[in-house]
Design a protein that fits this description.
Elements lengths: L6 H10 L3 H12 L68 E9 L2 E9 L8 E7 L6 H8 L1 H8 L2 E5 L24 H16 L2 E11 L1 H12 L6 E5 L10 H10 L14 E6 L8 H7 L1 H4 L5 E7 L2 E8 L8 E6 L6 E2 L8 E2 L5 H18 L1
Parallel strand pairs: 3-4, 3-5, 5-6, 6-7, 7-10, 11-12
Antiparallel strand pairs: 1-2, 2-4, 8-9, 9-10
Helix pairs in contact: 1-2, 1-7
Length: about 375
């Protein structure tokens, strides 16, 4: 059962009353510890943020719990700090010889971001699929790649993987600004930056335009939902892990509410316009599991068709619900993972916010992506 945080209602009331500093102080007091200035953040960013912690969940089979994330968000972004591109990273001991994990920089009308690009060692036998991976708060591309092990899965399938990096000047805790209307339109803000990164990669590599996908965790999952709702012309499918529906919040106050309850406003929670796979932990106290159910449309599914399968994988029980889609509704696949908190299922514990137990989210996402793309090709 999700643990309630009753003081958040008072914090939300303070925000709505424009008493932002009081709201921040209340949250920090109740969650423990005073605020800490973000190293290197410009003065203009020392303002109110949202920060939530989650309860520790004992993982299956006695494994040590993965560290739980905090979520800190900010409704506006400041001018970007300078980004310096690096050379292609030398292969790590567990990276196949001939593979690349390059650090690159995108610059475009909507802004600039650094990103990592994994190029498999396997020979390209024609245009390759591309998966865009959007990290969660406090993470970076290297950490996210380690925790999700997506590069390992991509090597097996000969898939390119891009990891856009949120800039600290845009959000002091490195969250994607999913709740800000400035970043909820596919043609502006951060969605446009991510799309620009895809175009950069497509100019340098042979990318299969029919098989471009986006996936993310938490704030990154919410941004993947936005991409699936606003850029169906570019992305063939999306994967949303512990995320929130597109346009389910319009500011800090509504972000707090939807994270806590999973209930968006009357005009919020727009469904993806492309096939989507959604994974969410049943013990997630940072982003309420109802958010994942809303993305999948499980409420509507009670009156329609859907297939539900239960099972156990790597020490955790799960329920997988598949909805075939039809008409304007796209295919959906929803995984409810018992015992999982706010972390990437079946990941590598060496990365942050990754839980080694449970279904392998990276493999399931890539499997879903390629199946959906193949289905569209046959159709």
């Amino acid at each position: 059962m999700v643990r309630s945080l009753p003081f958040l209602a008072e914090a939300q009331r303070l925000v709505l009353s424009r008493r932002l500093s009081d709201a921040t102080a209340l949250i920090q007091e109740r969650l423990g510890g005073a605020s800490r200035p973000v190293a290197g953040a410009p003065d203009g960013l020392r303002g109110p943020t949202i920060e939530l912690t989650v309860e520790a969940v004992k993982p299956a089979r006695g494994k040590p719990p993965a560290s739980e994330p905090t979520l800190r968000t900010r409704p506006r972004f400041a001018p970007h700090a300078p980004i310096h591109p690096g050379r292609a990273a030398e292969p790590s001991p567990d990276m196949p010889r001939g593979a690349e994990f390059a650090r690159l920089v995108h610059e475009g009308p909507a802004g600039r971001r650094a990103y990592r690009l994994y190029v498999p060692a396997a020979e390209a036998k024609g245009p390759r699929p591309l998966v865009v991976m959007l990290h969660g708060c406090t993470q970076n591309p290297e950490d996210f790649a380690r925790g999700t092990r997506m590069n390992v899965v991509a090597e097996e399938a000969n898939v390119l993987v891009a990891y856009p990096e949120q800039d600290r000047s845009a959000n002091p805790n490195l969250c994607w600004n999913w709740f800000d209307p400035a970043h909820q339109d596919g043609g502006t803000g951060e969605p446009a930056i991510v799309a620009g990164i895809v175009e950069d990669i497509a100019r340098r590599h042979a990318v299969d335009r029919r098989r471009i996908f986006a996936a993310g965790l938490s704030a990154g999952g919410a941004m993947a939902a936005t991409l699936g709702s606003t850029r169906p012309d570019l992305f063939a499918a999306v994967g949303i892990h512990s995320g929130l529906p597109h346009a389910s919040a319009r500011d800090v106050a509504t972000a707090l509410a939807v994270m806590r309850t999973g209930k968006a406003g009357a005009n919020g929670a727009m469904p993806p316009r492309v096939p989507a796979i959604i994974l969410h932990g049943a013990r997630d106290t940072t982003v309420h599991p109802a958010n994942g159910e809303r993305i999948a449309g499980l409420d509507a599914a009670r009156h329609g068709s859907g297939e539900r399968i239960t099972g156990t994988e790597n020490g955790r029980d799960f329920t997988r619900t598949t909805l075939p889609g039809g008409g304007r509704t796209q295919p959906r696949e929803h995984w409810r993972i018992e015992g999982l908190a706010h972390a990437w299922s079946g990941g590598d514990g060496a990365g942050s916010h990754a839980d080694p137990a449970g279904p392998d989210a990276s493999r399931e996402m890539l499997r879903f992506f390629l199946e959906q793309a193949a289905s569209r090709t046959r159709g």
